[in-house]
Protein backbone atom coordinates (compact mmCIF):
# COMPACT_ATOMS: atom_id res chain seq x y z
CA UNK A 1 0.00 0.00 0.00
CA UNK A 2 2.81 2.35 0.93
CA UNK A 3 4.48 1.77 -2.45
CA UNK A 4 1.20 2.35 -4.27
CA UNK A 5 0.62 5.63 -2.43
CA UNK A 6 4.19 6.76 -3.19
CA UNK A 7 3.68 5.90 -6.85
CA UNK A 8 0.42 7.87 -6.98
CA UNK A 9 2.09 10.89 -5.37
CA UNK A 10 4.84 10.78 -7.98
CA UNK A 11 2.28 10.65 -10.78
CA UNK A 12 0.40 13.58 -9.24
CA UNK A 13 3.58 15.66 -8.91
CA UNK A 14 4.58 14.84 -12.48
CA UNK A 15 1.18 15.92 -13.75
CA UNK A 16 1.50 19.19 -11.83
CA UNK A 17 4.90 19.84 -13.39
CA UNK A 18 3.56 19.04 -16.86
CA UNK A 19 0.55 21.30 -16.29
CA UNK A 20 2.88 24.05 -15.06
CA UNK A 21 4.98 23.69 -18.21
CA UNK A 22 1.85 23.83 -20.37
CA UNK A 23 0.61 26.96 -18.62
CA UNK A 24 4.07 28.52 -18.94
CA UNK A 25 4.22 27.84 -22.68
CA UNK A 26 0.70 29.20 -23.13
CA UNK A 27 1.36 32.54 -21.41
CA UNK A 28 0.64 35.12 -24.09
CA UNK A 29 1.05 38.45 -22.30
CA UNK A 30 3.92 40.65 -23.47
CA UNK A 31 4.75 44.21 -22.48
CA UNK A 32 6.84 46.90 -24.17
CA UNK A 33 10.55 46.94 -23.28
CA UNK A 34 10.28 43.77 -21.17
CA UNK A 35 12.91 41.16 -22.01
CA UNK A 36 11.75 37.77 -23.23
CA UNK A 37 11.54 35.06 -20.57
CA UNK A 38 14.78 33.09 -20.21
CA UNK A 39 15.89 30.57 -21.09
CA UNK A 40 14.74 30.79 -24.72
CA UNK A 41 13.45 27.27 -25.47
CA UNK A 42 13.83 27.53 -29.24
CA UNK A 43 16.49 28.09 -31.87
CA UNK A 44 17.02 31.45 -33.55
CA UNK A 45 18.91 31.83 -36.82
CA UNK A 46 19.81 34.90 -38.83
CA UNK A 47 18.89 33.85 -42.35
CA UNK A 48 18.75 35.27 -45.86
CA UNK A 49 16.73 34.31 -48.89
CA UNK A 50 16.62 35.48 -52.48
CA UNK A 51 13.78 37.02 -54.39
CA UNK A 52 14.73 35.45 -57.71
CA UNK A 53 12.25 37.57 -59.64
CA UNK A 54 13.96 40.82 -58.60
CA UNK A 55 17.45 39.42 -57.83
CA UNK A 56 17.57 40.87 -54.32
CA UNK A 57 18.55 39.33 -51.00
CA UNK A 58 16.23 39.73 -48.02
CA UNK A 59 17.49 39.08 -44.52
CA UNK A 60 15.68 38.16 -41.37
CA UNK A 61 15.35 35.79 -38.44
CA UNK A 62 13.98 32.27 -38.29
CA UNK A 63 12.92 30.82 -34.94
CA UNK A 64 11.86 27.21 -34.46
CA UNK A 65 11.42 24.77 -31.56
CA UNK A 66 14.56 23.32 -29.99
CA UNK A 67 13.40 19.71 -30.07
CA UNK A 68 14.58 16.42 -31.51
CA UNK A 69 11.84 16.63 -34.11
CA UNK A 70 12.81 18.24 -37.40
CA UNK A 71 9.27 18.83 -38.57
CA UNK A 72 7.25 21.91 -37.62
CA UNK A 73 4.46 24.09 -38.95
CA UNK A 74 5.84 27.47 -40.07
CA UNK A 75 4.50 30.95 -40.69
CA UNK A 76 5.95 33.96 -42.54
CA UNK A 77 5.13 37.36 -41.01
CA UNK A 78 4.38 40.27 -43.38
CA UNK A 79 4.45 43.90 -42.20
CA UNK A 80 2.07 46.81 -42.51
CA UNK A 81 2.65 50.05 -44.44
CA UNK A 82 6.01 51.80 -44.19
CA UNK A 83 9.66 50.97 -43.66
CA UNK A 84 9.91 48.23 -41.07
CA UNK A 85 12.56 45.84 -39.82
CA UNK A 86 11.95 42.23 -38.89
CA UNK A 87 10.59 43.07 -35.42
CA UNK A 88 8.04 45.57 -36.82
CA UNK A 89 8.92 48.29 -34.30
CA UNK A 90 5.95 50.61 -33.63
CA UNK A 91 6.03 53.15 -30.78
CA UNK A 92 8.64 51.04 -29.00
CA UNK A 93 6.60 47.84 -29.35
CA UNK A 94 7.96 44.88 -31.33
CA UNK A 95 4.89 42.86 -32.29
CA UNK A 96 6.67 40.51 -34.70
CA UNK A 97 9.30 39.64 -32.09
CA UNK A 98 6.47 38.92 -29.65
CA UNK A 99 4.54 36.77 -32.15
CA UNK A 100 7.70 34.84 -33.05
CA UNK A 101 8.57 34.22 -29.40
CA UNK A 102 5.11 33.03 -28.42
CA UNK A 103 4.55 30.79 -31.43
CA UNK A 104 8.03 29.23 -31.31
CA UNK A 105 7.54 28.45 -27.61
CA UNK A 106 4.46 26.57 -28.75
CA UNK A 107 5.95 24.40 -31.47
CA UNK A 108 5.66 26.73 -34.48
CA UNK A 109 8.49 28.09 -36.63
CA UNK A 110 8.36 31.78 -37.54
CA UNK A 111 10.21 33.68 -40.28
CA UNK A 112 10.28 37.46 -39.98
CA UNK A 113 12.40 39.69 -42.23
CA UNK A 114 13.45 43.27 -42.91
CA UNK A 115 11.27 44.84 -45.57
CA UNK A 116 12.99 45.30 -48.93
CA UNK A 117 15.23 48.36 -49.05
CA UNK A 118 15.37 48.68 -45.27
CA UNK A 119 17.95 47.68 -42.67
CA UNK A 120 19.72 44.51 -43.90
CA UNK A 121 17.49 43.71 -46.88
CA UNK A 122 18.38 44.71 -50.42
CA UNK A 123 16.07 46.45 -52.89
CA UNK A 124 14.47 49.87 -53.24
CA UNK A 125 11.65 50.50 -50.79
CA UNK A 126 10.62 53.83 -52.31
CA UNK A 127 9.93 52.22 -55.68
CA UNK A 128 8.29 49.06 -54.34
CA UNK A 129 4.71 48.10 -55.18
CA UNK A 130 2.25 45.71 -53.57
CA UNK A 131 3.28 43.16 -56.19
CA UNK A 132 6.90 43.52 -55.01
CA UNK A 133 6.00 43.02 -51.36
CA UNK A 134 3.87 40.00 -52.27
CA UNK A 135 6.79 38.59 -54.25
CA UNK A 136 9.02 38.97 -51.18
CA UNK A 137 6.53 37.12 -48.99
CA UNK A 138 6.24 34.25 -51.45
CA UNK A 139 10.05 34.07 -51.66
CA UNK A 140 10.12 33.64 -47.87
CA UNK A 141 7.65 30.74 -48.09
CA UNK A 142 9.77 29.12 -50.80
CA UNK A 143 12.85 29.46 -48.59
CA UNK A 144 11.09 27.50 -45.86
CA UNK A 145 9.92 24.81 -48.25
CA UNK A 146 13.41 24.45 -49.73
CA UNK A 147 15.18 23.88 -46.39
CA UNK A 148 16.71 20.40 -46.52
CA UNK A 149 17.52 20.04 -42.81
CA UNK A 150 14.02 20.83 -41.52
CA UNK A 151 10.61 19.70 -42.75
CA UNK A 152 8.31 22.71 -42.50
CA UNK A 153 5.35 20.48 -43.21
CA UNK A 154 2.71 23.21 -42.97
CA UNK A 155 3.55 26.68 -44.30
CA UNK A 156 1.47 29.82 -44.36
CA UNK A 157 1.47 33.59 -44.05
CA UNK A 158 0.30 35.97 -41.33
CA UNK A 159 0.01 39.54 -42.59
CA UNK A 160 -0.86 42.70 -40.69
CA UNK A 161 -2.56 45.68 -42.37
CA UNK A 162 -0.72 46.05 -45.71
CA UNK A 163 0.61 42.54 -45.13
CA UNK A 164 -3.01 41.44 -44.74
CA UNK A 165 -3.63 42.87 -48.21
CA UNK A 166 -0.58 41.36 -49.91
CA UNK A 167 -1.09 37.96 -48.23
CA UNK A 168 -4.25 37.24 -50.25
CA UNK A 169 -2.38 38.26 -53.41
CA UNK A 170 0.04 35.40 -52.69
CA UNK A 171 -2.67 32.92 -51.70
CA UNK A 172 -4.65 33.73 -54.85
CA UNK A 173 -1.72 32.72 -57.06
CA UNK A 174 0.20 30.14 -55.04
CA UNK A 175 -0.68 27.23 -52.79
CA UNK A 176 -0.51 28.02 -49.06
CA UNK A 177 -1.55 25.75 -46.21
CA UNK A 178 -3.14 28.67 -44.36
CA UNK A 179 -3.49 32.45 -44.29
CA UNK A 180 -3.91 34.74 -41.26
CA UNK A 181 -5.23 38.26 -41.81
CA UNK A 182 -4.68 40.83 -39.03
CA UNK A 183 -6.36 44.20 -39.48
CA UNK A 184 -6.73 43.58 -43.22
CA UNK A 185 -8.93 45.27 -45.84
CA UNK A 186 -11.95 43.71 -47.46
CA UNK A 187 -13.81 46.79 -48.65
CA UNK A 188 -12.60 48.75 -51.73
CA UNK A 189 -9.59 50.95 -50.99
CA UNK A 190 -11.23 54.32 -51.82
CA UNK A 191 -14.07 53.53 -49.39
CA UNK A 192 -11.56 52.35 -46.77
CA UNK A 193 -9.58 55.57 -47.11
CA UNK A 194 -12.71 57.67 -46.53
CA UNK A 195 -13.68 55.63 -43.48
CA UNK A 196 -10.14 55.99 -42.11
CA UNK A 197 -10.16 59.78 -42.49
CA UNK A 198 -13.63 60.23 -41.02
CA UNK A 199 -13.04 57.75 -38.19
CA UNK A 200 -9.84 59.43 -37.06
CA UNK A 201 -11.44 62.88 -37.12
CA UNK A 202 -14.49 61.71 -35.20
CA UNK A 203 -12.36 60.01 -32.54
CA UNK A 204 -10.51 63.29 -32.05
CA UNK A 205 -13.76 65.15 -31.45
CA UNK A 206 -13.95 66.99 -34.78
CA UNK A 207 -17.29 68.50 -35.85
CA UNK A 208 -19.01 67.41 -39.07
CA UNK A 209 -17.83 70.64 -40.71
CA UNK A 210 -14.22 69.94 -39.70
CA UNK A 211 -14.49 66.35 -40.94
CA UNK A 212 -15.61 67.62 -44.36
CA UNK A 213 -12.66 70.05 -44.49
CA UNK A 214 -10.24 67.23 -43.70
CA UNK A 215 -11.84 65.02 -46.35
CA UNK A 216 -11.25 67.73 -48.96
CA UNK A 217 -7.55 67.88 -48.06
CA UNK A 218 -7.28 64.09 -48.39
CA UNK A 219 -9.00 64.29 -51.78
CA UNK A 220 -6.40 66.85 -52.88
CA UNK A 221 -3.59 64.52 -51.78
CA UNK A 222 -5.15 61.63 -53.66
CA UNK A 223 -5.40 63.75 -56.84
CA UNK A 224 -1.74 64.77 -56.47
CA UNK A 225 -0.63 61.18 -55.94
CA UNK A 226 -2.54 59.93 -58.97
CA UNK A 227 -1.53 62.75 -61.31
CA UNK A 228 2.19 63.18 -60.56
CA UNK A 229 5.19 60.96 -61.19
CA UNK A 230 6.71 59.23 -58.16
CA UNK A 231 9.76 61.12 -56.90
CA UNK A 232 10.99 64.12 -54.98
CA UNK A 233 8.55 66.50 -56.65
CA UNK A 234 5.59 64.45 -55.40
CA UNK A 235 7.12 64.15 -51.91
CA UNK A 236 7.55 67.92 -51.76
CA UNK A 237 4.04 68.58 -53.06
CA UNK A 238 2.46 66.26 -50.48
CA UNK A 239 4.53 67.89 -47.73
CA UNK A 240 3.53 71.43 -48.75
CA UNK A 241 -0.15 70.51 -49.00
CA UNK A 242 -0.13 68.83 -45.57
CA UNK A 243 1.84 71.66 -43.96
CA UNK A 244 -0.42 74.32 -45.45
CA UNK A 245 -3.53 72.52 -44.22
CA UNK A 246 -2.13 71.26 -40.90
CA UNK A 247 -4.96 72.89 -38.91
CA UNK A 248 -7.50 70.93 -40.96
CA UNK A 249 -5.73 67.59 -40.54
CA UNK A 250 -6.56 65.98 -37.22
CA UNK A 251 -3.32 63.98 -37.28
CA UNK A 252 -1.28 67.21 -37.37
CA UNK A 253 -3.37 69.62 -35.36
CA UNK A 254 -1.29 71.26 -32.63
CA UNK A 255 2.07 69.81 -33.76
CA UNK A 256 5.12 71.95 -34.49
CA UNK A 257 8.78 71.56 -35.43
CA UNK A 258 10.27 68.09 -35.77
CA UNK A 259 7.12 66.39 -34.45
CA UNK A 260 5.14 67.96 -37.28
CA UNK A 261 7.70 66.94 -39.90
CA UNK A 262 7.80 63.35 -38.66
CA UNK A 263 4.01 63.00 -38.76
CA UNK A 264 3.76 64.48 -42.26
CA UNK A 265 6.45 62.11 -43.47
CA UNK A 266 5.02 58.98 -41.84
CA UNK A 267 1.28 59.50 -42.30
CA UNK A 268 1.16 61.35 -45.60
CA UNK A 269 4.34 61.11 -47.69
CA UNK A 270 4.95 57.42 -46.88
CA UNK A 271 1.34 56.69 -47.74
CA UNK A 272 0.38 58.89 -50.69
CA UNK A 273 3.76 59.35 -52.40
CA UNK A 274 4.68 55.69 -52.94
CA UNK A 275 3.94 53.39 -55.92
CA UNK A 276 1.96 51.06 -53.65
CA UNK A 277 -0.68 53.79 -53.19
CA UNK A 278 -1.26 54.17 -56.92
CA UNK A 279 -1.27 50.43 -57.31
CA UNK A 280 -3.95 49.66 -54.77
CA UNK A 281 -6.01 52.75 -55.64
CA UNK A 282 -6.15 52.09 -59.37
CA UNK A 283 -5.65 48.31 -59.36
CA UNK A 284 -7.77 45.33 -58.28
CA UNK A 285 -9.82 45.65 -55.09
CA UNK A 286 -9.21 43.30 -52.15
CA UNK A 287 -12.21 41.26 -53.30
CA UNK A 288 -10.48 40.29 -56.55
CA UNK A 289 -7.79 38.43 -54.60
CA UNK A 290 -9.85 37.24 -51.62
CA UNK A 291 -12.35 35.40 -53.80
CA UNK A 292 -9.48 33.31 -55.20
CA UNK A 293 -8.21 32.23 -51.76
CA UNK A 294 -9.14 28.62 -51.05
CA UNK A 295 -6.78 27.77 -48.17
CA UNK A 296 -7.98 27.97 -44.52
CA UNK A 297 -8.18 31.60 -43.35
CA UNK A 298 -8.18 33.23 -39.92
CA UNK A 299 -9.27 36.88 -40.05
CA UNK A 300 -8.96 39.07 -36.94
CA UNK A 301 -9.95 42.71 -36.52
CA UNK A 302 -10.59 45.13 -33.66
CA UNK A 303 -13.68 47.23 -33.02
CA UNK A 304 -11.40 50.21 -32.24
CA UNK A 305 -9.30 49.84 -35.39
CA UNK A 306 -9.52 53.26 -37.04
CA UNK A 307 -6.84 52.64 -39.67
CA UNK A 308 -8.61 49.68 -41.25
CA UNK A 309 -12.03 49.73 -39.54
CA UNK A 310 -12.58 46.31 -38.08
CA UNK A 311 -16.37 46.19 -38.04
CA UNK A 312 -16.96 46.48 -41.82
CA UNK A 313 -13.74 44.82 -42.97
CA UNK A 314 -13.96 41.60 -40.93
CA UNK A 315 -17.58 41.17 -42.08
CA UNK A 316 -16.77 41.82 -45.75
CA UNK A 317 -13.70 39.53 -45.76
CA UNK A 318 -15.81 36.76 -44.23
CA UNK A 319 -18.59 37.26 -46.80
CA UNK A 320 -16.26 37.37 -49.83
CA UNK A 321 -14.39 34.22 -48.84
CA UNK A 322 -17.50 32.19 -48.05
CA UNK A 323 -19.44 33.32 -51.13
CA UNK A 324 -16.43 32.27 -53.25
CA UNK A 325 -16.68 28.76 -51.80
CA UNK A 326 -14.03 28.80 -49.08
CA UNK A 327 -15.39 26.47 -46.40
CA UNK A 328 -12.59 27.01 -43.85
CA UNK A 329 -12.96 30.61 -42.73
CA UNK A 330 -12.66 31.75 -39.11
CA UNK A 331 -13.51 35.41 -38.51
CA UNK A 332 -13.01 37.19 -35.19
CA UNK A 333 -14.08 40.77 -34.49
CA UNK A 334 -12.56 41.55 -31.11
CA UNK A 335 -13.91 44.22 -28.77
CA UNK A 336 -11.84 47.26 -27.86
CA UNK A 337 -8.73 46.34 -29.84
CA UNK A 338 -6.96 48.94 -31.99
CA UNK A 339 -5.18 48.51 -35.33
CA UNK A 340 -2.15 46.94 -33.63
CA UNK A 341 -4.58 44.57 -31.87
CA UNK A 342 -3.87 46.04 -28.44
CA UNK A 343 -6.49 46.73 -25.74
CA UNK A 344 -7.37 50.40 -26.32
CA UNK A 345 -9.80 53.15 -25.37
CA UNK A 346 -9.90 55.38 -28.47
CA UNK A 347 -8.03 53.57 -31.26
CA UNK A 348 -6.05 56.72 -32.10
CA UNK A 349 -2.41 56.19 -33.21
CA UNK A 350 -0.95 58.32 -30.42
CA UNK A 351 -2.65 56.12 -27.83
CA UNK A 352 -0.30 53.28 -28.80
CA UNK A 353 2.48 55.24 -27.10
CA UNK A 354 0.67 54.94 -23.75
CA UNK A 355 -0.29 51.26 -24.04
CA UNK A 356 2.20 48.91 -22.42
CA UNK A 357 0.77 45.62 -23.72
CA UNK A 358 2.19 44.84 -27.17
CA UNK A 359 -0.65 42.64 -28.44
CA UNK A 360 -3.78 41.21 -26.84
CA UNK A 361 -3.06 37.69 -25.49
CA UNK A 362 -6.22 36.26 -27.03
CA UNK A 363 -4.93 37.20 -30.51
CA UNK A 364 -1.75 35.19 -29.98
CA UNK A 365 -3.70 32.21 -28.66
CA UNK A 366 -6.05 32.33 -31.66
CA UNK A 367 -3.09 32.36 -34.05
CA UNK A 368 -1.40 29.46 -32.25
CA UNK A 369 -4.54 27.31 -32.12
CA UNK A 370 -5.34 27.99 -35.78
CA UNK A 371 -1.84 27.07 -37.02
CA UNK A 372 -1.70 23.95 -34.86
CA UNK A 373 -5.10 22.91 -36.22
CA UNK A 374 -3.81 23.18 -39.80
CA UNK A 375 -0.67 21.22 -38.90
CA UNK A 376 -2.73 18.33 -37.52
CA UNK A 377 -4.44 17.93 -40.89
CA UNK A 378 -1.08 17.22 -42.53
CA UNK A 379 0.00 14.61 -39.95
Layout of SSEs?
Elements: H1 2-26, E1 42-51, E2 56-65, E3 71-78, H2 95-105, E4 109-113, H3 130-146, E5 151-160, H4 162-173, E6 178-182, H5 189-203, H6 208-227, H7 232-244, H8 257-272, H9 275-282, H10 286-290, E7 297-302, H11 310-323, E8 329-334, H12 361-378
Helix pairs in contact: 3-4, 5-6, 6-7, 7-8
SSE series: HEEEHEHEHEHHHHHHEHEH
Amount of helix: 40-55%
Beta content: 15-25%
Straight-line N-to-C gap? 43 Å
Oligomer: single chain
Largest beta sheet: what is the strand line-up?
A: 1-2-4-3-5-6-7-8
Shape: globular
Number of helices: 12
The major pleated sheet works out as: 8 strands, mixed
**What value does the average pLDDT take?**
90
Structural class: alpha/beta
What does this protein look like?
There is one protein chain. This protein has 379 residues and is an alpha/beta fold. The chain has 12 helices and 8 strands. It has helices at 2-26, 95-105, 130-146, 162-173, 189-203, 208-227, 232-244, 257-272, 275-282, 286-290, 310-323, 361-378, and strands at residues 42-51, 56-65, 71-78, 109-113, 151-160, 178-182, 297-302, 329-334. The chain has an 8-stranded mixed beta sheet, sandwiched between helices. The protein is globular. The two termini are 43 Å apart.
Amino acid sequence: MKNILSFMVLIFLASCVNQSKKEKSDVATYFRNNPLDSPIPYKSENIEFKNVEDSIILRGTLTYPNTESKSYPAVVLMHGTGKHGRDYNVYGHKPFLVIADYLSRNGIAVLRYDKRGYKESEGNFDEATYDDFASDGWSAVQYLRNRKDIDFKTTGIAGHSEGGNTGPMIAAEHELDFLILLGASGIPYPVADSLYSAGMSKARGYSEEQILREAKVHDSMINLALSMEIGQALDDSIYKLAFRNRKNLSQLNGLTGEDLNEEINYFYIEYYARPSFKEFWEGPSPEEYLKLVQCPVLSIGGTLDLHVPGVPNVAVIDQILKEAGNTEVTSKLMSNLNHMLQPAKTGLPKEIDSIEMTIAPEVLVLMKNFIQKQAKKIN
